[in-house]
Fold this sequence. Notes:
Blueprint: H1 2-27, E1 39-41, H2 49-57, H3 66-72, H4 82-101, E2 105-111, E3 114-124, H5 131-149, H6 159-177, E4 182-190, H7 201-214, E5 217-223, H8 225-232, E6 237-238, E7 249-252, E8 259-268, H9 278-294
Parallel strand pairs: 4-5
Antiparallel strand pairs: 1-2, 2-3, 3-4, 5-8, 6-8, 7-8
Helix pairs in contact: 1-5, 2-4, 3-6, 4-5, 7-9
Amino acid sequence: MRRGAKLLAAASGAAIYAAWRLWRTRRTAFDWGELPEGVELLEDMDDAVGCLAAAWTGTADADPERGFDWMLGPELAAKDDPERLRLLAWCQRFFIGLAGASGGAVLAVRRGGDVVAAVGVVPYARGLPGPVGDLLTLARALAPLALRHGLGGFAAPGFGDRFRAAWPLVDEAHRKACAGPHLHVGPVGVRPESQGRKLLSPMLRHVGALADGAGWQCYLECSGPRNAAIYGHFGYVDVGGPGLERGPMTLTCPLTGDTFDSFWSMVREPTACAGNTGSDAIAIEEKKEEAEERGD
Length: 296
């Protein structure tokens, strides 16, 4: 009996190690190009968790990520509730784990050694995986999360129900929007005390330049018309969701029936500067932004 348990533990350990090796290999397979000054590719993507969780929870002066604010529900509405921050940190570890398991990475800006702005990016060179690929990716993401932080977020009262209900709709929207090669952008966040300094701009422009050079789309989800307008400045347009040609999707809580009706699915098409990469494409995007600000 003990021998069987030891063999099972050894096999499980080997499987986890193999998944980790595959994650590392896939993560480094994409060429992220020459990064803008002050931007780095995080070696340990967990370094971004604190930044993203703080950005999404919000403060008295900074808006939360509204979709997840709805998922947390009225029970966790207080921005300084430790359980609210714990659940959002758990979510970020889950999303970052999915990004790593899919060959993605996190671009980041630091101030004083701490990450203050972060953008997750996942390259899908062959489009989204099918059901088997999805399960393998999920397994690679969940194994380290379960070992280090548990899987309690999925079962958290209220939040877990909303999160599980939203997931299939969001996945369907992603598949509707992008059938071919693309970059999936997210999670995205800036610490509240560092917001308003355009720290995301060089990272989002760089991602756009990479996509333009490859002739790929970019895809992201966001909450609220304000965020949708911000991403529109970088070339993203609303593409609706399942059954919708345009406009935000509605998420529904299966327990209470309450809804969140401002969840946006957005796509950025490769622009005319495709064929230019790195600094050339970024310079073109910067000139376009300057012209927009002048009203040209």
